[in-house]
Amino acid sequence: MLTALLTSRAARDAGEAPVTSPYATGPFDEATVAAYRAAGWWGMETVAGHVRRHAAERPGDPAYVTPDETLTWSAYEENSTTLARHLAALGLAPGDRVATQLPDGPAWHVAAVAAEKSGLILVGVGARAGRRELHHLLDRTGSRALLTLADHRGGPSTTLVDELRTDGLDLTHHVVVDRLGVPDRPRDADITGRALGPDDFSMLNSTSGTTGLPKCVSHTQNRWFYFHELARRAGALDPSDVFMGAVPSPFGFGLWTAHFSPAALGVPTVLMERFDAHAALDLIERHRVTVLHCVSTQFIMLLNAQAERRRDLTSLRCMFTGGEAVPYDRAARFEDATGAKVLQFYGSNETGALSHTSLDDTREHRLRTAGRIIPEMEVRLFDPSDGSDITGSGRPGRPGCRGPATCPGYYDDPEADEQLFTPDGWMLMADIVEIDDEGYLRVVGRLTDLIIRGGKNISAAAVEEEVGTHPSVALAAAVAMPDEVFGERVCVYTELRPGTTLTLDDLTAHLTERGVSREWHPERLVIMDALPRSSGGKVAKGALRKDIRHRLTT
Fold it and tell me: pLDDT band for position 11 (50/70/90)?
């Protein structure tokens, strides 16, 4: 039975006991769970169960490695149990929410397993989230406890908690842990019978926050182990691999690449508290990493850093990426230089994977598409203007899906759920895609990332790929610039390679020489030392749109 130990904000404010989430009668009803399990898409495994098994079979092997620490499987098991008992001793009841704001390292994974063992719902907050976002997420979820390190951005984390409480946040407990997840002055309590199962709501995390304050996505473990199995087959993953997870773990991509897949396989995972391209390349070389996970922006940064100082990356077999399109030419050169293959997954924190590429796909399919539609994930295309079903018409459309990879919905946010689902239950993406006769999906643009110039739809992703071919450009982001005549024009923000310069005329000449359609040419160029990024590591397009509006009015 799908169990949901969540309390709505209204019930919490009224002092009521935990209530069953409305999602329990939604997409994951008992019949659906039974069908997914019968088909072999969902099982009975949990992260805590895998950690316990690896601790018994390979206790001294590394589970997580950072430049400064190593967490073995036996320490992973011991530390997560210690923290689980400590949380229970504080009086936190099964179903209570406990939030984390921890850097990307062993402590976060220990905290996640501790929450699972003690029957608590983990609220994952990105380490880069500001106080306003943190306050919003803790208040929205009714989190009773916050786990942090002792230090926070150069000062004591107690100062952060004091400020949150001064701002009106009702936070009962602040739990300080070290970088291996061990609490300060641990207390003890019995946690027998409290552990969450694979069908239980176990986690809430946020959308990556590129626009507005984030929403909270609800998760069960089964959807992520299903995702892991897709990745295992696509990349021929096995226990001999060494992972590097460059995406922060509270976010969807980081969850399966650094938390669920490593637990299922028993592989070591190399992590960094804060992504740095040069440091990442050094770690890949030092630890002979075989499987790299990163978003497209990080991939471009890695390519730039490798061009500045070459490392031996021949240990890499494959690189999983997603979130944004990768530049074809540069990805092809990366493959030729390393022998690794770039694999793309398409989906979101909410939907999970709709399509993916695999080692068996041709380079054209792997780098030009987001892969083939996953058979058990039902996918439809909807007209973005009127919502009509245009599946099979050959026209690009907005994808909707349902199947074993999807989340149950947003936490306590019916208005957001109305936008996420069609009336008949299809979970929507915010992209425009096309699907060819072989079932390969290609992203044309994002509904909020289309630049409409004089009635012409221009894909920001396509503009970014073309601009990125200029030798001076390290990273590019295209946004709509308001215009009284055309409605919108193309504005491009760039980071430049060290020691280079670029003007709009230079860029226009380059694009003209490449034969790029004139309407794709940027009509304004803004050069920044560093483009703003969301907590999940993506370029924060919302901040850039706000910036260009400000520039136009000053």
Answer: very low
Q: Is the pLDDT of residue 284 over 60?
A: yes
The β-bridge relationship of strands 173-176 and 145-148 is parallel
How many Å apart are CA 387 and CA 7, to the nearest integer?
33
Establish if 391 belongs to a structural domain.
Answer: no
Strand pairing of 19-20 and 62-65?
A: unpaired
By C-alpha distance, which of 127, 129, 146 is closest to 272?
127
What does the alpha-carbon distance between residue 389 and residue 355 come to, in Å, rounded to a whole number? 19
Whether 258 maps to a domain, the answer reads: no
The mean per-residue pLDDT over the stretch 340-353 comes to: 94
pLDDT at 4 over 80: no
Last residue of a domain, one of 176, 194, 221: 221
Number of domains in the chain: 2
Total residue length of the chain: 554
Give how far the C-alpha of residue 165 lies from the chain's centroid of Cα atoms, to the nearest Å: 29
Residue 130: domain span? 5-22+69-221
Half-sphere exposure of 59 (CA within 13 A, CB side): 5
Cα distance between residue 125 and residue 127, in whole Å: 6
CATH at 527: 3.30.300.30
Q: Look at residue 325 and tell me if it is in a domain.
A: no
Q: Do residues 106 and 181 touch, judged by C-beta distance below 8 A? A: yes
- Nearest one of 288, 283, 318 to 105, comparing CA atoms: 283
pTM: 0.82
Domain stop point among 173, 196, 221: 221
